[in-house]
Every structure is written in C-alpha cells, then in structure tokens.
Design brief:
The structure is a homotrimer. By secondary structure, chain A is an alpha+beta fold. In chain A, the strands form two sheets. A five-stranded antiparallel sheet of chain A has the order 1-8-3-5-6, covered by helices on one side. Chain A is elongated. Chains in contact: A-B, A-C, B-C. Chains A and B meet through strand 3, strand 4, helix 2, strand 5 and strand 8 of A and strand 1, strand 3, helix 3 and strand 8 of B.
C-alpha cells in the first residue's frame, strides 16, 4: 500500500477547454508503480474546473466552450457579484457545474481511461493564470 | 487494508436515466468484506454518465431525461461537432455536466447510500451499446 | 495507513448555498493525524448537494441560488414528478448537476483547499431539514 502526492502547476491557458492528459500523466510517472489504485486530481481554484471527455476531435472542445458561454452567460441582469469583471461570476457557475476534482482508476500502472477519454482543464477566466493541481495516488504499489 | 478492482459491463440500454443499483451491487459482492472504505465507480465513455438520485419513483428519471434534452438540445445552430449524429454533441455535454464517476462510502460491508439514493446510468446516445464500468473498492477488509 | 469514518449531521438550513467549511473541519479533528491522504464527503440525500467554490464574498452564493433557480425552474410544464411540491423536482435536478460528494486532498494534517475554496452545502428544498454527511478519511496517519 502506498500514497503519493504532488502539486502540478499547469501553465496559463486561454479561456476554453484544453486537453491536458499527457501533461498530467508525464508529471506523475510514479503512477507506473501502482498495480491497482486511484489517481485523484484536484484543482485549487474556484473559476476553473477539471472534466473528462472526448480526446480526439477539437471541435468537441470548441462546442463545449460555446455551450457553456450560453449556459452561464456574462452580464446576467440579476448578478450581484460583478466587481471582478463580467467573466468572473459565470466562471464560478461553470466551475460548480463541472467540478473541482476527478478520480480515475489505475490498473497495471496506467490510468484506466476509456479509448476516447481525455482530461480537460476547463479555464473559465479570460486570464486565469497558472493553475495548481494536486495529484494524489493511492493503491498497491511495487517496492 | 485491501484493494479490489473489477470491470462490470452494463448491457445496452435505451437513451434515458436508468436505475442500476442492484446490478452494480450484485457485481461486486467483495464489498461485503469491507468494514469501512470507499467504492469508486468509473464509466469509460464520453457520451454516458453516472449519477446518484431518487430510487423509487420512475417519474423522476423520466423528468430528468426531459430536462436534460432541453438543457443540451440537439441541432444547436452553433455546434461544429456534428459528424456523429445529432445526439452526439448533446451527449458529450450531458456527460460533463453529470460526471464520469461516483465515490460512495462503504460501512459494515454495505454501500452507505441514503434511503432514497440509487445509482443511475445516464445513457445519452440513442444507441450507446454496452457500457464499461470499472469498480474499485478500497478500505479495511476482513481476511 | 488508516481509515476513519464519521457521520456528521448538518442542522437545517434555508434553501440556498451555505458555507460549511469550518463546521465540517471541526467535526473531524482526526484529519490532523494524516500526513497525506484524502477526505471524502458524501451527502445521503437526493435534493441537496455538496460543492466547492468561493469562500469570501456572500454575493457569489446569492448569485448561485438565483442562477440555479433559473436553470432548473419550478413548475416546468413537462414535469410529471409533482406530488412532493414545486421545489422537489428542481431540487433533484440541481442535485445531479452539482453532485453528491467531494474528495479533497489532505496534506500535513489539513485539507489542501485553495485560498478561495470553501465547502458549500447546497440546500435545494424549501424545508430540507437536517442533512446527513458521511466523512471518510484515508491516508498515512501518525500513530
């Protein structure tokens, strides 16, 4: 049984849905030691989110950005939290809809993602800056 | 301390919200060995989801299907990911809104669900086919 | 390696988004023994949810309530699950959108939340009553 935890900083990205699977996997090669377990990814922010979805066609991620901009539009007349800019309150709403963490099974040293599943960083601010992710691995590990 | 992991294949279901609590529990009788722990359920697809909600009245699940079909409608004029059919991009949107995994506490060998909580398979494609779920149990287990 | 689990009852709150970070942390001082690990929070209800978001400005939580009341409005003409009152079916919808559980990393005996992250109880019923949360801690603990 083993526990492993590391903070991973994702560089600043533009507003939108970004595929970060390779970057996350490369940041925690220790996952390769786990025969079975779980990988937990946690974003320490309230205006960005993590999600799992289609990893191949970039039009899916473009449509997600277009959809969520309509689902949680800027400048809704009833918003009272407006001091931090028009993209701020929609960013908080998108973040609670999408969620702050992912838990992915580990099997034979690899994340057991489906063929089409990739890890998304969902950046909801126009200029969110770098984002901190805490990756926690637990499971049965080789010595 | 113990880890246990098994893939469970759920048979093809029609588009909609389906109660699969009994099927999941029956597929991992090993949970009965855990005095305390967590059960993690992970769906390896990008157009279906897992959720927890009301386990008694089927009208709740019918209303969920009606609601999500309005929340993420087919043929939105701004969609660019349209090659896989009109139900495809809405399925991806519903999947990120609902989520790919559930983590449920185990207590005294049973999932500690509330009285009214059941496990939903949320099938968002018209013909999604069988769905692969990886169930991972961890906790303190009897020998 | 250690596991710890406790039920925490949150007192009745009005409909809306409520910050409960301090109450949850105070209820599980055992987290202080974990050098690394995960805290899992699970709400055993189908008309309330847990979420992480902004912990400082109460206008964020007020805007969330206003937004979700519009996103899942009462008395939608197509609802068939209406026997339990107009706030019931919207509460189920908000609950699946927001989710029933949170998993938060533990580092050096503390929840590794970001500076601005707080734990929300999302109460979607007009009179939901007390809410049961099961907190499960796992990780490497001091003796």
């Amino acid at each position: 049984m083993a526990w492993f935890q590391r903070e991973v900083i994702l560089a600043r990205r533009s507003r939108g849905f970004h595929l970060v699977t390779r970057e996350i996997i490369a940041a925690v090669p220790e996952a390769g030691r786990f025969s079975v377990g779980l990988a937990h990814l946690f974003i320490r922010h309230t205006s960005a989110a993590l999600a799992l979805n289609e990893n191949a066609d970039p039009t899916v991620r473009a449509d997600m950005e277009a959809y969520f901009n309509r689902l949680a539009p800027e400048r809704a007349p009833y918003f009272t939290h407006t001091l931090e800019g028009p993209d701020d309150m929609p960013a908080h709403l998108k973040a609670v809809l999408l969620g702050s963490s992912l838990t992915i099974p580990i099997r034979d040293g690899r994340l057991a993602l489906g063929t089409w599943q990739g890890i998304y960083l969902c950046e909801h601010r126009d200029d969110g800056g770098p984002r901190s992710i805490i990756v926690t691995l637990s499971g049965e590990a080789d010595d």
